[in-house]
């Protein structure tokens, strides 16, 4: 009887031990670790590939916006900037957000200011004829055409239209029937006091933006470069460069 009871107790203890062992967390085997490692190493490249694909898609989309005319015209300002002389009989300044250069843009953005010229001609009419011919030579490939030529009280106003990098451009001249005068006896003025003063403005009539940027698209200084090409054709001096040619401020 005693041996039977002992066997029952041992059997119960063995059964309880097996049940406890079955409920305890099983230590990860080396094969389990290998499977987990393979899972991590295989899922990480997938995530990296997804990120790379998303970045590529974004760059392609931005490239299409920059090269597509319809996308780059997301916000376009039409030909609304007035031309001609202002109420004070002066050539107008450059609007702040336009690709433009003007002899009247004093105190504004440096890249929008242009130095006036002087025309060494016998009459204002001679100066008008010479600058018109220079525009045709320098900007003929841009379809330049004269749209206004008006004598005014103290000189002559001209306006040309031509193709620009972003649309139509206006080029204006105001040739005054007076010279630069005697600037405190400066030697550079000797014999040139009566050369006619030539003021100008070159303006891209359209402002374009590329979404989502709020800075207007640049024409990379084309307005100032155009005016220097015209000046090179007509051969007139810049004011302040009478003794020697100034370094170009392009």
Automatic annotation (TrEMBL):
Biased composition (Basic residues): 1-11
Top-rank lineage group of the source organism: Eukaryota
Renumbered residue ranges of the record's region Disordered: 1-44, 68-89
Compositional bias ranges of the Low complexity kind: 12-33, 68-80
PANTHER family attached to this UniProt entry: THYLAKOID LUMENAL 17.9 KDA PROTEIN, CHLOROPLASTIC
Protein name: Predicted protein
Organism: Micromonas pusilla (strain CCMP1545)
